[in-house]
Design goal:
Order of helices and strands: EHEHEHEHEHEHHEEHEEEHEEHHHE
Mean pLDDT: 89
CATH class of the largest domain: Alpha Beta
Strand content: 5-15%
Number of strands: 14
Shape: globular
Distance between the termini: 10 Å
CATH topology of the largest domain: Rossmann fold
Number of helices: 12
């Protein structure tokens, strides 16, 4: 029978997940119940996406500001800590800053990038920078410089004055806070040689530049809480990166060591249906908001864990390229047959470089994880699991 529907993403409702819950059993049962209730079938290579938050919650992967402070204290001792390139976020960074400030000996020098942070939260507009005659590629501004030139700038979505907010957090713990604005990691070395780099996707390069410039102590957020402090949570790969505020004094860390759980889900569903599904954990999607100019990906990676069938990039033909070029003289059934034959040749590895003309080599987990994030949302949909079907189909299916 001819099929008229391609990829479908379904949000799967689940119970509220709590620490210690058997996620493999809950998720497998929820997917099977949804299929039965809504009358759809499961197929080989369907993908189950599980939001990272319920995985971390089931693991009990939490830490307190005291845990963060203890690790910071161990790593930085009595040094003034240069905290550079944090993103502007109450949910993502403010709670981490509380722990950093509590662990600092006496002083924190907070260096903010401008005109925006790494993920696009704007501190000041480019038009205002141009009008003030400031060069963000070379100029280092003090807090007084910034206020004199730009005044009080509030975040367009949250209404927060993040300069005041972050400074107050540090001072709340009895520590001195100096705030500067600069865009080169080495600029912090004018103030201290002990640096905590808080950027996400540029962190490795930042640390390389700091080491080359002679920094004495260099750590990144991904190196804080890489192992437990007492009975705290941890993440060996990403530390505090990917964490979210849980309470005013506690964070939920990015999940760790969850591959076995994904394989358990795969095996439970294989036994129940005879179909081999793929399973992945996903966090933020990798996309940018065109209105607010904010890049969604504040996690260090879209998918911290997935089954092996999701390794790699898509192997796809650019159908519109074929229709406009190779088969521009064809139409109707003739065009369809020609494209179907080209896809069969591609699947048999008979098509060369032209096959991928114009396609972007993104990883499967980044693409499917972004689809899952958009489907589940971050509100009250109650669908922390997403079932993606037909993603690996092509025009001939």
């Amino acid at each position: 029978m001819e099929r008229f529907v391609g990829t479908v993403a379904r949000g799967i409702r689940c119970p509220i997940i709590r620490q210690g819950d058997d996620l493999a059993e809950i998720i497998s049962s929820s997917v099977l119940q949804a299929a039965q209730a809504d009358g759809f079938q499961l197929h080989d290579r369907d993908v189950i996406g599980i939001t990272e938050s319920i995985v971390a919650r089931a693991q009990g992967n939490y830490a307190t500001i005291d845990d963060i402070a203890d690790d910071v204290r161990q790593k930085f001792g009595d040094a003034t800590i240069g905290v550079i390139f944090p993103i502007l976020s109450r949910n993502r960074f403010a709670i981490c800053l509380r722990g950093i400030a509590k662990g600092a000996a006496k002083k924190v020098v907070l260096m903010l990038s401008y005109p925006s942070d790494e993920v696009g939260n704007e501190l000041v507009s480019l038009d205002m920078i141009e009008e003030a005659g400031v060069n963000p590629y070379s100029d280092i501004l003090t807090e007084d410089d910034f206020r004199q030139k730009f005044g009080i700038i509030r975040h367009p979505f949250t209404g927060m004055d993040y300069i005041q907010y972050y400074g107050d957090i540090v001072r709340q713990y009895g520590k001195e806070c100096e705030i500067i604005f600069a865009n080169h990691p080495q600029d912090i070395l004018r103030y201290t040689d002990a640096v905590l780099s808080c950027d996400i996707h540029t962190r490795c390069h930042t640390r390389t530049l700091l080491h080359k410039a002679g920094a004495r102590i260099v750590f990144g957020l991904d190196e804080i809480l890489t192992e437990p402090i007492g009975d705290s949570g941890y993440n060996a790969d990403y530390g505090l990166l990917g964490s979210n505020k849980a309470t005013e004094t506690k964070i939920k860390l990015f999940p760790h060591e969850c591959k076995d759980m994904l394989i358990d889900i795969q095996n439970i569903l294989l036994k129940a249906t005879g179909k081999k599904l793929e399973v992945m954990v996903y966090g933020d999607g990798a996309f940018k908001d065109p209105q607010g100019k904010i890049w969604e990906l504040a996690d260090p990676i879209v998918s911290p864990s997935h089954t092996d069938g999701l390794i790699g990039t898509p192997n796809e033909l650019k159908l519109k390229y074929l229709a406009d070029n190779d088969f521009s003289a064809l139409d109707g059934e003739a065009l369809r047959d020609a494209i179907s034959e080209k896809i069969r040749q591609k699947d048999a590895n008979l098509v060369g470089q032209m096959a991928s003309e114009g396609t972007t080599p993104r990883r499967l987990t980044d693409l499917i994880g972004s689809l899952c994030d958009l489907t589940s949302g971050s509100g009250d949909k109650g669908t922390p699991v997403v079932l993606v079907q037909g993603y690996f189909d092509n025009y001939t299916n």
